Amino acid sequence: MPLRVIEIVTPREDKEEVIKSLEEHRPDEGYVFWASPLDDDSALSFRVILDVQESENVLDKLENLFSWNEKYRIIVFAAEATIPRLKIPEKEEPEVTQNDKNAEVTIKNRISREELYSDVLDTSVMSKSYVMLVIFSALVAVIGLMRGNVAIIIGAMVLAPLLGPNVGFSLATTLGDKKLALESSKTLAVGVALAFLVSLGAGLLLGLPKISSELLLRSTTSFSDIILAIVSGAAGIISFTLGVPTSLVGVMVALSILPPLSACGIFLGAGETGHAAGAGLLFLTNIICLNLAGVVTFLLQGIQPLTWWDRERAKVTAIRMAFLWGIMLAILILFLYFGIIS
Q1: How far apart are CA 107 and CA 103, in angstroms?
Q2: Which of 36, 107, 117, 250 lies 20 to 30 A from 187 at CA?
Q3: Do 68 and 138 have their domain in common?
Q4: How confident is the model at residue 310 (pLDDT cuts 50, 70, 90)?
């Protein structure tokens, strides 16, 4: 199991209070900790080493303890190993009263909410690097689609600049975080617009004397595409929550977001409106399935805000959005079933 180090910087006068709190919770989480003085002699640094699955429980307890005060600072970073190894605590079933909703301690087989939020935020924020990545990815996709070269298309899939903002929007929905939702939506909108314009320009300038098989594959939608998008989306979300970025490569390839969008732009620029509509529909299908799978998987993984009032509000938002994505998917399935679209 991966390890995490939680560093707590506190004023020196609060040393005993922090030690008492850490000692009280140590039997539940099975961590070890120690304190070190900082250079200015007015603050201490506590370091706690524990399994990643316990990090959210400890962070939530620390945040409740500090509630929140500018005097404190908590930093989380990864640890490769510790010697001697951590002991696995023997857990007893905790008694949870109605008046103490935060008393329940559950093992979460994932990274902490704060660590997940930081990882997702990195891929959801608008930046010059993101804009360049979208443009380069779109160019790679256009070249691969026009040449019918699968290897080049996979290169565009691996870059996957549109995956992060979608995951960010799903996490924002689950947490009821309006700021992250707006940032992810803005980043996604800009990314989609740029990729489409690059592809449209290629279609207008170069035309389409020959439609490659790879382009044709992105101009139709089938039930298998829906299943693939849902399964791949759920797998991608789990990869994020486990903090295993290497497994995302396979998800990026399976969940093809950019190539259908590029195909739509190429077809439209070349005057192939029928094929353009089909490619646009496949792109929309992937977006719907990814966000639906994202919200549901985040909920199943137990991702929720810290305080109970935020949890209730976020739960309502997540259920409403999941219902909305589900309705859109149901309409799409009905259209496919009755042959209205293909």
Answers
A1: 13
A2: 250
A3: no
A4: confident
